[in-house]
Amino acid sequence: MKESIKCEEIGLIGELIQGEELAKKLYDQIFSPSSPSSSTSSSSSSSTSTSSHQVLIDKLILSIETAITMAKGNEGKIKTNNVNMMDSHCSNGSPKSEVQDSKFKHKHVSKKRKTVPKWTEQVKVYSGTAAEGSVEDGHSWRKYGQKDILGAKFPRGYYRCTHRHAQGCLATKQVQKSDEDEMICEITYKGRHTCTQSNKALPSKTKLKFGQNKSQLNQKIQPQEEKIQSPLENNFSIDDKEDIFQSFNFSSPSIGSENEDNNIFLETMIENNFMENEDNNIFSDSNIFCLSSLLDLDSTGLGPSESNITEIISGPNSIANSPMDFDLYNDINFDMDDFSINTQELCY
DNA sequence: CAAATTTGACCTGC
DNA sequence: GCAGGTCAAATTTG
């Protein structure tokens, strides 16, 4: 409970900071004669600066409104959390005290897991071993479950990072063979690896045996595989607002060529400060940045060029690969109802 | 024998 | 109530 309140506070503070920054910007634009926006073209400066002032003011108002909304939301949330805790404990009359308790704790935390980044890929395996689905993505995975999915020919396999316990790596993935084409596996990744496993070492292959008879497992596994780009709508799961967070496009070259450390840093930052804060709708659906480089599976920084695997993570609006100006997105964000954080901060 | 997989049961959200 | 996701004991594998 404390944590969620803390998250609310963080979001609120972020919102207020954003408001402050916007106010400063506005101040600069109005009162600073050397402002780049007004000094470049004298003929159009007046209308341009006026419109930019308008934008800034809009942002400022929105920011303040969001902060107010969040502050209001806090009151109810604290109460709600109390009730939830009570309900969860009291309604559970199971005698399995210890196991239940630990499970309960776990499940309670798992609510937050919904907020981890999630993206989907389709992997085509040419070798004819799609049966095993030996999908190599540079990480070792341990299968923890398999489930028949309604309407799907093949069961879905559930995998988590082998280093989950050792290093607390919470990355998971779900692998499911496509109904239409057995050669295609749809892989949904959730969370990013925080383990220190290196790609340089040969990754242990995930052997996916869903819906296959064992004789097929003796087939020679060839690593040849190709990630194919599916239509954007299909390739990118937009199940919840947090998904969109992947689509942040950090135009900064230094970030664009991120290494593992920075990725982890960002993810940690995201998870600690933003992602958990579900109710604030931070980074709402319409925020169309791209984090593709940060979510690159090749987290060692070797890059996709090292392999034949091309990471394809596309935002809903195809902006992922667009070199468009970051500020444009930033402006767009402020048109959104639930925007609550200054994304420019992330850019720096 | 340790690690990985299988699989039925359990939990949660819709 | 159902479907999807996870757990964990049993089993298999190296």
Automatic annotation (TrEMBL):
Keywords on record: DNA-binding, Nucleus, Transcription, Transcription regulation
Biological process according to GO: leaf senescence; response to hydrogen peroxide; response to ozone; response to salicylic acid
Domain WRKY: 130-193
Record's compositionally biased regions (Basic residues): 104-113
Gene3D superfamilies the UniProt entry points to: WRKY domain
Keyword Transcription: yes
InterPro entries assigned to the protein according to its UniProt record, in alphabetical order: WRKY_dom (IPR003657), WRKY_dom_sf (IPR036576), WRKY_plant (IPR044810)
Gene Ontology molecular function: any one: DNA-binding transcription factor activity
One Gene Ontology CC term in the entry: nucleus
Location of the region described as Disordered in the Swiss-Prot/TrEMBL record: 90-113
Subcellular localization: Nucleus
Family statement drawn from the similarity comment of this UniProt entry: Belongs to the WRKY group III family.
Protein's UniProt name: Putative transcription factor WRKY family
Gene behind this protein: 25500724
